[in-house]
Specification:
- By secondary structure, the protein is of the alpha+beta class.
- It folds into three domains: about 1-125, 2-Layer Sandwich (Beta-Lactamase), CATH 3.30.450.20; about 190-280, Signal transduction histidine kinase, dimerisation/phosphotransfer (DHp) domain (Helix Hairpins, Orthogonal Bundle); about 280-435, Histidine kinase-like ATPase, C-terminal domain (Heat Shock Protein 90, 2-Layer Sandwich), CATH 3.30.565.10.
- Helices cover about 55% and strands about 20% of the residues.
- It is built from eleven helices and twelve strands.
- The protein has helices at about 1-25, 30-40, 75-80, 125-175, 190-240, 245-280, 290-310, 325-345, 375-380, 390-395, 400-410; strands at about 45-50, 55-60, 85-95, 100-110, 115-125, 285-290, 310-315, 320-325, 350-360, 360-370, 415-420, 425-435.
- It has a five-stranded antiparallel β-sheet with strand order 2-1-5-4-3, sandwiched between helices.
- Strand 1 and strand 2 form a beta hairpin.
- Helix 5 (about 190-240) packs antiparallel against helix 6 and helix 7 runs parallel beside helix 8 (about 325-345).
- It binds adenosine-5'-triphosphate (ATP) and magnesium ion (MG).
- Adenosine-5'-triphosphate binds near residues 340, 398, 399 and 400.
């Protein structure tokens, strides 16, 4: 920057020196120089020295050096006498009447008919340049100070806005990781931090819900397992209390114990199945499966039970539909629903199964003309362990998990199960699965 201002000044003074050289080239004596330069406005405040080719001073605006060799600013003057224009910065110089600290001097050749006959030296004060520079430097310091004050205030504010709430949140999360799952933070304003806070609150609420669901599930599962176990306990106790074990009664009791054990096994199998499905949600192993064949397989494996009840099993599958699915999970879902249709339909009824595809969805419907479900029951049957008639189902052997498993399986595939039913008339379950082309 300093450089820039001094360059400007140098150009200015070189021009001035050349003009002076032009003007004085006609003069010969000190008086003639004085008179030709005297009126010049532009040499005011400048020191002007004119020398001959040997650097002997012919004219000096300060009237100090006339007749002697010009030594001040020697270097540039010698160059000027060789025909070069040159300017440089000078320091502590005696210019006209006053001494200056900063200045700029220029020396140029004086030509007469294109021949160098001497040189002209002009020096001016550069105090104005220095003043500007000082001003700029002062302003820079001022701006820097202002900026640092602002940065200080701003970072203090940031600390208040960000650091403190984040610290509070960190503390709460720490408590959470120590087991206190339900935590809520106070939310102020609408900043990103406030948003983080409300996201945190939602997460905590969700965690609490999940935790409650899990606790409920464990309690339900324990209860379901307890019932057959207490039956077994009672049966065994009464056998132990018998004076004499009649073979016929023993056989009957052991048969009851056996079916309770079967029931325990079924419940545990279903529970294991369900937990396994929960885990595999993220990495569902799919294959391209012919749905017609899958449904026919289900029907084939369940046919003996239907025959026992004298039920008719009809399937209507108009065309081949291939889906990318996990075969075991969907097989299980279809099986559980067909199994229900048979179980909850009286002897001599009909179960009707269809497979269709519309647009991007595949529908499997399982319709029966059995006992049906009230609107209230329809809402609950997908819950784990829910059975409409517990006492009755203890005989049919239901665990109340079949539909929960079926729905989980279908949802894992991005589909769902719908139900239409009327008490006493029958039910229709529809499995919807998204159809992807690969
Ligand atoms: N097609 C149906 N008609 C009438 N009621 C049904 C039908 N399907 C299910 N339900 C009712 O819904 C309840 C829940 O069914 P879900 O399949 O989950 O359990 P479950 O059949 O009792 O036991 P599991 O399937 O484990 O043997 C059944 O107990 C039954 O009361
Ligand atoms: Mg069932």
């Amino acid at each position: 920057m300093t450089e820039y201002f001094y360059n400007q000044k140098s150009v200015e003074i070189l021009t001035k020196a050349n003009m002076i050289a032009n003007i004085v080239s006609g003069a010969d004596t000190q008086e003639e120089y004085a008179s030709s330069l005297g009126q010049l406005q532009m040499i005011k405040d400048s020191r002007v020295v004119v020398t001959d080719l040997d650097a002997r001073v012919l004219y000096d605006s300060a009237n100090q050096l006339v007749g002697v060799a010009f030594l001040e600013g020697n270097g540039i003057m010698l160059n000027a006498l060789k025909g070069h224009n040159e300017a440089k910065r000078i320091k502590y110089s005696q210019l006209y009447e006053k001494k200056v600290e900063y200045g700029v001097a220029a020396a140029v050749p004086m030509l007469k008919e294109r021949v160098t006959v001497g040189g002209v030296y002009v020096a001016v004060s550069a105090e104005d340049v220095e003043d500007i520079l000082k001003n700029i430097r002062y302003n820079l310091i001022y701006i820097a100070l202002l900026v640092s004050v602002f940065v200080g205030i701003f970072s203090a504010m940031l600390a208040g806005i960000i650091t403190i709430p984040v610290e509070r949140l960190t503390g709460i999360i720490k408590e959470m990781s120590e087991g206190k799952l339900y935590q809520q933070v106070e939310i102020k304003g609408r900043s990103e931090i406030a948003e983080l806070g409300s996201a945190f609150n939602r997460m905590s609420t969700q965690l609490l819900r999940e935790e409650e669901k899990r606790r409920q599930f464990v309690s339900d599962a324990s209860h379901e397992l307890k019932t057959p176990l207490s039956s077994i306990k009672i049966l065994v106790d009464s056998m132990l209390n018998m004076q004499k074990l009649e073979p016929a009664i023993t056989r009957e009791f052991l048969g009851d114990i056996n079916s309770e054990i079967d029931r325990l096994t079924r419940i545990i199998q279903n529970l294991l199945h369900m937990t396994k499905m929960d885990v595999t949600v993220n990495a569902l192993e799919v294959k391209e499966i012919n749905m017609k064949k899958l449904i026919e397989d289900v029907v084939k494996s369940i046919k003996p039970i239907a025959r026992q009840k004298n039920l008719k099993l009809e399937t209507v599958i108009p065309h081949v539909v291939k889906l990318w699915i996990n075969e075991d999970e969907i097989w299980e879902a279809v099986f559980n629903i067909v199994d229900n249709a048979i179980k909850y339909t009286d002897d001599g009824g009909i179960v009707h199964i269809t497979l269709n595809q519309f647009d991007q969805e595949v529908y499997i419907t399982i319709e029966d003309n059995g006992i049906g479900l009230s609107a209230e029951e329809q809402e609950k049957i997908f819950e784990r362990f829910y059975r409409v008639d517990k006492a009755r189902d203890r005989q049919t052997g239901g665990t109340g998990l079949g539909l929960a498993i079926a729905r989980q399986a279908v949802r894992n595939h991005g589909g769902d199960i719908d139900i239409e039913s009327e008490e006493g008339k029958g039910s229709k379950f529809t499995i919807r699965l998204p159809y992807y082309e690969k």
